[in-house]
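Minutes, project huddle
Topic: does the predicted pose make sense with 5-hydroxymethyl-3,4-dihydroxypiperidine bound?
PN asked that the exact inputs be recorded in the minutes so nobody has to dig through chat later. Recorded below.
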Amino acid sequence: MPALPRQAHFTVKRSDFPKDFLFGTSTSAYQIEGSSFGGCGESHWDSFAATAGNVVRCENGAIACDHYHNWPQDLDLMKELGVSAYRFSTSWARILPEGRGQVNEEGLDFYDKLVDGMLERGLAPNLTLYHWELPSALSDIGGWRNRDVADLFADYAEIVVKRLGDRLSTVVTFNEPWCITWYSHFHGAHAPGLRDIRAVSRAAHLVPVAHGKAIAALRALGQKDLGIVLNFEHISPLDDAPANREAARLTEGIYNRWFLGGLLNGSYPEDVLSYLEPYLPEGWQQDMDNIKAPLDWLGINYYTRNLVSAGTTEPGSALPEMIGNKGPLPRTEMNWEVYPEGLGDLLSWISKTYTGALPLAITENGMANKDVLTGGAVDDQERIAYLDAHFRQALSAIDKGVPLKAYFVWSLMDNFEWALGYDKRFGLVHVDFESLKRTPKASYHALKAMLSGT
Ligand code: IFM
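Predicted holo structure (C-alpha cells), as shared on screen:
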C-alpha cells in the first residue's frame, strides 16, 4: 500500500477562500466530556462498551478528555488556532438523565458556561443535539425503533434551545443518521449493537421523523439556522460487472440517497424503499411532510470512498449482500482510502441534485494518523497533506458555484473513537489519555499559520 503523503505546510491560503467563509473544529459530547462527571445519566454507549467484544478493551467515555473540567483550556486552544466557529454537541443524558422528566440543572449550567466561553473567545457556537449517546432509559423502551422517542427528542431539543438558543449560531438535530441507523441497527457495530432489518428500517424512518418534530418545535421558538448533518462516502462499483454496478447503486442509495431523499424531497428512493417498505412503521407515508420540513443549511461529513461488489446472497436475506472493497490508494489509520476528489464530486452532486441554493457546510473531515509524541511534539505531516487536499476540493466546488460556507475539521483533539476506543487519533491536538495533557500537533501549527496568513 502506498505511503500517505506528507507536507510541512498548507498550499491553500486563507485568502483563497471567501472572506466570510468559516473555519472551525468539531467534537462531540460523549467523545470528549467525561460522562462520569456532573450528574450525567447512563447512555446506551455505556452499556454497549461494557459488553466485551463491542469496544476495544471495553473502553468508554467515562473520563474521555475530561473536557468537562478542562473546557476553558480547550476553548483557548481553538482561539489560539484562529478558527472562528466551534461545532460541539450536548449530551441528552447529561441534560435529562432519564431521557425525559427531571432536568439535571448542573448539565445545563455546564453548556451555558461553555457557550458563553465560546462567545468570549470569538467562537461561533454550532450545536448538534444528538451525537449518538441515547439515554439508557430510552434505549430500554426500544430507542429509535419506538415512535415515542421521536417526540421525546423534540422535547429535549426544546429544553436545550430555550436555555442556549439566544447565543447559538446554528443548531443541528442529528449527526450522521446513517451511523445512528445502519451502522448501529444493521451492522451492529455501534450502540445498541443490533443486526436486524426491521430495527434498521424503523430507525431509518423514525430518526427523520424525530428530526422533523424537533425542527417544528425549534421554529416555533423562533430559532434560526437549523440544519442536519449527513455523512457521505464516495461510492462506486469495484469494476464494470453488472452485479457489482447494481450492488454499488443500492449501497449508494442506502448510504447517500435515503436521508437526502426524505429530508429534501419528502420521498425515499424507490430502489431502497422496495427492500425496506415491509418493515417500515405503519402509516409512514403520513410522516413525509413533517420530515421534509425546510432546512436552513445542510452539513456534510466526508472521509473516504467505497468500492462495492456484490456478494453471495443467502436465499432468505431481506437485502442483497453488498461488499465494501479498498482500492490502491494510501489509507489512514482507520484503513480508509484517502480520496479527496470524492469530496468535490459529492459537493457538486448534492447541490445539483438535491439542495440547489441551500447553504452547505463541511461539518467533519479529517484523518486518524499514527501520531507519536516525541520530545513534546507530534509530526503529523500526513494530516496536513490530507486536509490540504480536501481544502482544495472545497475551493474548486466554491469556484463551480456550490454554496459552501464553512469547513469544520474533525477533530479539535484526540478522543474516544467509539468502537475503536482511544487507539485512533483524529485530533489537531494530541491528548495523553493518562495525564490528559494537550499538545498541539504539527497540523495545528500549520493550520494556525494558514488561517493567519503567515
Ligand atoms: O469520530 C467520528 C465522529 O463521531 C462521527 N463522524 C466520524 C468520526 C470519525 O470516525
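Observations noted during the meeting:
- The chain has a mean pLDDT of 98.
- The longest helix spans residues 197-220.
No decisions taken; revisit at the next huddle.
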